[in-house]
Amino acid sequence: MKKIAVITSGGDAPGMNACIRAIVNTAWQHDIEVIGFRHGFRGIAENLAQPLHPDDMRLVSQRGGTFLKSSRFPEFREVAVAQQAAGVLNEHDISALIVIGGDGSFRGAVHLQNHWHGQVIGIPGTIDNDLAGTDVTIGFATAVDTAMDAIDKVRETAEAMARVFLIEVMGRHAGFIGLHAAIAGAAEGMLLPELEPQPKLADIADNILRARAAFPDSSYIVVVAENLWPGGVHELGNNLSKATGVTCHPCPLGHIQRGGRPNAQDRILAMQLGAAAVSAIMEGKRTIMIGLEQEHVVEVPLAATFARDKPLDPRLVELQHGLQGVNFASKNGAKTA
Ligand code: F6P
Question: What distance in Å separates the CA atoms of residue 267 and residue 274, rounded to the nearest whole number?
């Protein structure tokens, strides 16, 4: 009987468990045995093996996080560690490894492929959605829902107290969560790494003052991508408060964006990609990522997924810029910003 392995690696993402379920159940339908290694690449190197059986998959897909556990494991860049992992995979007689993770994990997967003869297949699992070659990654849609819920809640208190809030969202160095959350949360502003030119502090302050002048009794929310403003939203809040004379409240959402039950979109995506990864293994494919483009499952060379930056959809950027401008329109029709 053929035997394959699966790991979840790097930042966990809602939907990873649903993906494991699809892999295990699809594999068993084809008489392929599956084992997991706990804690990602570290678990392979340390031989933290866990047999996976369809019986154990019945109640996992609705849970966030990853029951297989994950880790960040920079030591895997060392050749000796990758070779050690290859040895462990061989000891278990594994012929293929599925890596569910983001760009750092895929770099690790390519590195392993250079030191191991088996098939390495990637499945995009990261809330950041920053992998080229796939329109969406597992966990992104749920993270956007979570950020939107949080913005809605902040909006209620901000509106009641007529306050300005700077809401920091995750994304590492990409603005996908920020853009989608800003649109869904009807934010008055967004600061994302991809925007050119980057607005200056004086421009942001000016917009806040204009909005306050037009709507002194209303809330004002700016979605800010993490790692963009030196010192984060706390520092930005201090600087803007000084520049405007209006208290600008920082509100970093942090890791709540990584947790929670995966939404339907993420579960369905995860199961589609998990099943397709097993099919790709049976067809002898190697060193590819299984992604989704225009609602079709696609296979992309693994290295191509992190070789270039994935751009934001310019139509969505334009949409948000247009809509946030109208938030400053006064009732007599004149635009104030
Ligand atoms: O890659 C997912 C992510 O949540 C990023 O958005 C964020 O920058 C990073 O992981 C945080 O990583 P950690 O939980 O290791 O601090």
Answer: 10
